[in-house]
Amino acid sequence: MALWSLRRRPGSTLGLLLLIILSYLVFRRLNWSTLILPGLMHRQLGLQANGPKFMLEGSTFWIFGGSIHYFRVPKEYWRDRLLKMKACGLNTLTTYVPWNLHEPERGQFDFSGNLDLEAFVRMAAEIGLWVILRPGPYICSEIDLGGLPSWLLQDSRMKLRTTYRGFTKAVDLYFDHLMSRVVPLQYKYGGPIIAVQVENEYGTYNKDPTYMPYIKKALENRGIIELLFTSDDKDGLKNGRIEGVLATINLHSQQELELLNTVLQGIQPKMVMEYWTGWFDSWGGPHNILDSSEVLQTVSAIIKAESSINLYMFHGGTNFGFINGASHFHEYKADVTSYDYDAVLTEAGDYTDKYMKLRDFFGSLSGSPLPLPPVLLPKVAYEPMMPIFYLALWDALKFFEEPIKSETPVNMENLPVNNGNGQAFGYILYETTISSAGTLKGFVRDRGQVFVNTVFIGVLDYKKKEIAIPLTQGYTVLRILVENCGRVNYGNNIDDQRKGIIGNLYLNDSPLKNFKIYSLDMKESFFQRLSDDKWDFIMESPEVRTFPAFFMVRLTVGSSPLDTFLKLKGWEKGVVFINGKNLGRYWNIGPQETLYLPGAWLVKGSNKIIVFEETMAGPVIQSTDKPHLGRNQYPN
């Protein structure tokens, strides 16, 4: 019953209106299921499954949806992307809700700025879009741990996505907070949310038959009264269903359309919740693309089969910061920073051939002219930027928090930092002293650079679990810089995603002791402490620089900051920060070659760019007005 859509009934009194307002204020933090005022709502029916058709308020309704994740798009560009969705002929926005970003510490919630879910949903309503919400708690979404917060893994017995008490207790507290925000935005209370998903693709996980009924009840008990549905691919359709909940399917080709008739739910509306318009990329792999003509043919075939559809993704956006996920089946593969997905809109919101063809197609079904597509936001190539300041990691350690002292290695999630919630993202540095040469062995997740004093020796990772340590004279410090490259977001091994050094570290089969452990999460507070007077001018030749290291450059922008793409040719592997915001990772193994830099994150005048480079710095940072996401290849 959001106030922005409330209609007064004829003859209502001032006292009744005040009661409604008071109820609204109370409802936002209490259980709505006990406080609904019968007869005050002007929307009664909502989205319903009526035989083979969807009905919305008694009229036949087709869902023409598209996915945009608010947390992957700068808030300043939300309206632009949603207007482009409306102009493509779609009528419904779908979005995931990332628990790990909204509750970074247990009981501490963040729905501000780029995480303002309520503002995003209301903006969709203003533009004329309905909303399908996919709140999880697990969302996959190629995001770290499938959107589950890493602090859950502090419990060594944790069983994610089950009714294990340690998990459900955390879900209950999260849902208490989240649903107090979501409930007022439902259709029957005047909002745009017409349906809510129960978890995500559980049929392929299927570890606890009581889990999905628990999630369904958890939603309903907190006031979710709109249509509920599940979402599964072909392998999970049978096991992902719940009684009384509409089953929908995910697919990527016409060859899978027969699945529409095998959902095993009787005469019900057909819905493709995810038609994959492209695919995500992993470091070291190809850039996946999908031909626009094939996309149009499949979309047309789905509609011809009398099914509603959601395009996943309509606009992918960016895995800003360290939020990218990973896959680990035959081998571990971390996802790249770009979530362009070869979607209908590009990572920077530009139109594609898919957009133009789908706009023509959905326009032909509309019955009335579509809105004109918004003018594209301009892109620019700024002047090349030369690093002017430099600071070796070893010299920067004093600007991080004090190290933890521990007899044995501690994994990232169990570090006593962040008010006892451990470390979620970034790097972790382990230091200890050694007195002999030999073979170093350990299990490192995901990638650990090994140093003797400050000399790089090699890398420990999933494939390489031991390395030779040379003999040195005198006091020797062994350092291992471990990067969390992204927790697995899909599969049966999500319980096993703790990062750092796992277990003991051995030298010549003897466990090493007495560690200093630095939490290098590289939050904005660290860069605030790293003021300009703490840096060294770059005067020496590149050959004598010590790595890893931070480099600072200045980008001067005129009166109208515009979008651009940073290209770090000659640099090897690291992370880029602009005015304290984390743009994400780069790596010269590709396929991604540029990082998207939103103009909304730039300011007139001087902008500070800091690059954390692990191995080798290039002479300049280039800027281009076109993205380079790698060679093209169709997804399998």
Structural commentary:
By secondary structure, the protein is of the alpha/beta class. The chain folds into three domains: 42-366, TIM Barrel; 393-520, Galactose-binding domain-like (Jelly Rolls); 538-633, Sandwich (Jelly Rolls). Helices cover 17% and strands 28% of the residues. The protein contains ten helices and 34 strands. α6 links the parallel β7 and β8 (227-232). α2 (78-87) packs parallel to α4 (117-127). The chain is globular, with a radius of gyration of 26 Å. The model is unreliable at 1-41 (pLDDT under 50).
How much is the average pLDDT? 91
**Count of DSSP-assigned helices:** 10
Named at the architecture level, the CATH assignment of the largest domain is Alpha-Beta Barrel
Question: Superfamily at the CATH H level of the largest domain?
Answer: Glycosidases
Structural class label: alpha/beta
Poorly predicted regions: 1-41
